[in-house]
């Protein structure tokens, strides 16, 4: 049975890289009628944030990547919170000690730092632990531990030869064992490091495919040696390409917005975000850019994954989000999403015919849900602000404003067609091109030159509001002189 997992650390806001890994893990599990699990790796207690646990699970639910098992959906292989499995990790650390595959190291942090600084002063490359306690007699090690002397448990990696990691995407990746460090498996506080806990939990939870970011590839020989020492079968290793900044560096919050919560706040749709993440390093067989998670499940193959570092481009994500708003989701669904988003952000509008009309008019002009309110404020309030360009147009065309007001007072049945007739008749009577009349009218009724089609806008506002706005514009133009 195919079992995949993600194992995020609850140390901050949910990272878009976590969503990226979750997507590929879920797709592969679903494609093979398998199981996708989420395990929270919270053993780094100095960075642990309880609220991050909730945020990670909420993020996955929002994206529609709900796992089959998680801290919120425990089963017989749980618990899925790593800190609750400490006794298991300690048991296998002791088993590695018993087998001679690991050893206790009694160095204090101060001693380690002093040795590091001494090596630096000698001009040596201090690359890791100097293995001082590696050959400590077992009896001495037991005696010091029994006496209460603090220690960590370190892995005994081979000192010669090479370790071969067979990666599904990269083939055989070879590591010189002389370059490997005796990594800490169990810390002095009794909590495991990632290396031990991940391998123990993956084995006990039946994880068949470890699909994770390529930054973990260099740690994999350590994981291979842990599995071999415990005589456990290796999973299939799959190290996916990292998401990158524009400069090809690893995507990080120092250079980019990496928080899924932030994209949600900006009004990015979950479907669009998943679609975009799916495009990061993978392509549909037919080359199309718009596809669903279900499409991925049906078409996914590892052969179509590119190992080049995919660049996370916010502009491309927003473009794709705009396509979802205009071309993928049904109009009523878009209106419902927008209404929910606006209410969640304190904007009280009714999801009625007028609202849906405004949504239809504004969709060609927005790429995210968050843009809607700023670009539609004049539809909801009469005290909207005028842009500098709009004010200038009102001043330049103020002799037309009274005539426009009178023309619309006389046209109570304001539809798209009647509004066009009024405007063209006035332009002809004044010997002007329609655009010369339309621009100050747009400035008067919207306060901006960036608005939907003029006749649709007038029809949506209705006669009373159009006339009142023209009267306000007359006053504003006079006051500006």
Structure overview:
This protein is mainly alpha-helical. Helices cover 48% and strands 9% of the residues. It contains 20 helices and nine strands. A three-stranded antiparallel β-sheet has the order 3-4-7. It has a two-stranded parallel ribbon with strand order 1-2. Helix 1 (16-31) links the parallel strand 1 and strand 2 (35-38).
Provide a concise account of the structure shown.
The chain is mainly alpha-helical and 481 residues long. The chain has helices spanning 16-31, 50-63, 86-98, 109-121, 138-146, 194-204, 220-229, 260-265, 270-279, 293-299, 314-328, 331-344, 353-362, 370-380, 388-396, 401-409, 416-430, 434-446, 454-461, 463-480, and strands at 3-6, 35-38, 102-105, 152-155, 162-167, 171-176, 184-186, 209-213, 236-240.
Tally of strands? 9
Proportion of residues in β-strands? 5-15%
Strand line-up of the largest beta sheet: 3-4-7
Low-pLDDT parts are none
Tell me the span between the first and last alpha carbons.
Answer: 78 Å
Rg value: 32 Å
Question: Given the structure, what is the number of helices?
Answer: 20
| Mean model confidence by pLDDT | 93
**What class would the helix/strand composition place it in?**
mainly alpha
């Amino acid at each position: 049975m195919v079992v995949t997992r993600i194992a995020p650390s609850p140390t901050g806001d949910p990272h878009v890289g976590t969503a990226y890994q979750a997507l590929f893990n879920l797709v592969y599990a679903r494609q093979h009628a398998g199981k996708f699990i989420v395990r929270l790796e919270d053993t780094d207690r100095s960075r642990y944030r309880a609220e991050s646990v909730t945020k990670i699970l909420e993020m996955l639910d929002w994206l529609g990547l709900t796992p089959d098992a998680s801290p919120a959906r425990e089963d017989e292989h749980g618990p899925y919170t790593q800190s609750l499995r400490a006794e298991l990790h300690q048991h296998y650390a002791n088993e590695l000690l018993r087998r001679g595959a690991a050893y206790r190291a009694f160095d204090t942090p101060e001693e380690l730092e002093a040795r590091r600084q001494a090596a630096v002063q000698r001009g040596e490359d201090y690359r890791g632990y100097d293995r001082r306690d590696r050959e400590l007699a077992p009896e001495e090690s037991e005696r010091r531990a029994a006496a209460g002397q603090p220690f960590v448990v370190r892995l005994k990696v081979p000192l010669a030869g090479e370790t071969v990691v067979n990666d599904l995407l990269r083939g055989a990746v070879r590591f010189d064992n002389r370059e490997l460090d005796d990594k800490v498996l169990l810390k002095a506080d009794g909590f495991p490091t990632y290396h031990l806990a991940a391998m123990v939990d993956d084995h006990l939870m039946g994880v068949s495919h470890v699909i994770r970011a390529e930054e973990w590839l260099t740690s994999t020989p350590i994981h291979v040696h842990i599995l071999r020492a415990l005589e456990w079968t290796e999973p299939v290793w799959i190290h996916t390409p990292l998401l990158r900044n524009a400069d090809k560096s690893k995507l990080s919050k120092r250079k980019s917005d990496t928080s899924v919560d932030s994209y949600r706040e900006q009004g990015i749709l979950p479907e669009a975000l998943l679609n975009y993440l799916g495009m990061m390093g993978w392509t549909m067989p037919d080359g199309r850019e718009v596809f669903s998670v279900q499409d991925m499940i049906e078409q996914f193959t590892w052969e179509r994954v590119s190992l080049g570092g995919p660049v996370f481009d916010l502009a491309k994500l927003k473009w794709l989000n705009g396509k979802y708003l205009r071309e993928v989701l049904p109009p009523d669904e878009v209106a419902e999403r927008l209404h929910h988003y606006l209410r969640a952000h304190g904007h009280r509008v009714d999801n009625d015919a007028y609202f849906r009309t405004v949504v239809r008019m504004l969709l060609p002009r927005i790429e995210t849900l968050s843009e809607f309110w700023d670009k539609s404020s004049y539809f909801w309030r009469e005290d909207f602000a005028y842009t500098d360009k709009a004010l200038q147009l009102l001043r330049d065309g103020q002799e037309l404003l009274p005539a426009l007001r009178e023309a619309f007072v006389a046209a109570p049945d304001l539809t798209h067609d009647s509004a066009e007739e009024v405007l063209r008749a006035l332009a002809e009577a004044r010997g002007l091109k329609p655009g010369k009349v339309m621009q100050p009218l747009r400035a008067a009724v919207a306060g901006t030159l960036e608005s939907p089609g003029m006749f649709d806008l007038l029809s949506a506002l209705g006669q009373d509001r159009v006339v009142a706005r023209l009267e306000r514009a007359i006053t504003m133009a006079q006051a500006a002189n």
